[in-house]
Amino acid sequence: EVGAPHSASGEEAQERDLSRLAPAPRRSRRWVPRRVVITPDALEHAHGRRIVERVEALGIEVERLRANRLTGVRGDDERQTYARAKATLAVVVSPPSRRRLQPISPSADWRVDLAEGCPAHCQYCYLAGSLSGPPVTRVYADLDEILDNLHGYVGTGTVTSRSTARSAEGTTFEASCYSDPLALDHLTGSWQRAVEHFGTWDAPVQLRWTTKYDDVDRFLDLPHGGRTRVRFSVNCRPVTDRWEGGTSGLVERITALRRLAVVGYPVGLTIAPIMPLEGWREHYSELLTLVEQATADIAGLDLTAELITHRFTASSKQVLQGWYPRTTLEMDEARRTVKRGRFGSAKHVYPREVMAELRGWFTEQLAARLPRCRVLYWT
Ligand code: SF4
Question: Where is region (Disordered) located (predicted)?
Answer without folding.
Answer: 1-24
